[in-house]
Amino acid sequence: MAKKILFVVTSHNQKGSTGEPTGYYLGEVSHPWDVLHEAGYEIDFVSPQGGKAPVDGFDLKDPINRKFWENKEYHAKVEATKRPDQVHPEDYAAIFFAGGHGAMWDLADNREIAAIAAKIYENQGIVSAVCHGPAGLVNVRLSDGSYLVTGKKVNAFTNEEEEAVGLTKVVPFLLEDKLKERGVRFEKTGLWQSHVTVDGHLITGQNPASAHGVGEAVKKALEGK
């Protein structure tokens, strides 16, 4: 199995019509990256539009954020992400959808990235996501036409967490509700608590606090192959 992992980040940089900036959440990239990079995996980045990905949660007091941001190779990769048509799914052992509110606007309806995720999953690879990243999973269909997430245990940013940050009426849909519409068995913990759910080759985490744990769970799943 390939020693490469594909990280998906948003290209969307604004929270609806609020004028507030958003993007991928830095800690939700850096913490899984740190676990998987240290384990010897090469990581590539893709976004719906390719090119420079907008960043949110930019906190360099977090030493892992700083480690990622100051790594010249990976800083360059996230500043020049691949377009979906430049990705070959067979090259990757896993795919990971990072969160950040931007994901709610451009990952759910991106058919190209959904097709990449489906192929990796059907190649017995790992599909993983954290926080708002599972927005990228809601419309992933397998070759038999079924939704990848239907009937699976899944976790993601909760309705209560969206309410707590005051964006319930801003996001285009509520992620917990949409996943439940897809027939998932939705798991959750209290606000901002780490929660990682593993269901076979599908690994999901609830919020930024879960990002490290998702990285660890992906590493463990890949080692178990």
Automatic annotation (TrEMBL):
Query: What GO molecular-function term can you cite, just one?
Result: peptidase activity
Which Pfam families does its entry note?
A: DJ-1_PfpI
What domain of life? Answer: Bacteria
Identify this protein by name.
Answer: Putative intracellular protease/amidase
Q: Which residues are in the DJ-1/PfpI domain?
A: 28-211
Q: Which GO terms describe its cellular component?
A: cytoplasm
- On whether Hydrolase is a keyword of this UniProt record, the answer is yes
Q: Which residues form a coiled coil?
A: none
Q: Which family does it belong to?
A: Belongs to the peptidase C56 family. HSP31-like subfamily.
InterPro entries, A to Z: Class_I_gatase-like, DJ-1/PfpI, Prot/Nucl_acid_deglycase
Asked whether the keyword Calcium is assigned, the reply is no
According to its UniProt entry, this protein's organism is Siphonobacter aquaeclarae
Q: Name one GO biological process term.
A: methylglyoxal catabolic process to D-lactate via S-lactoyl-glutathione
Alphabetic keyword roster = Hydrolase, Lyase, Protease, Stress response
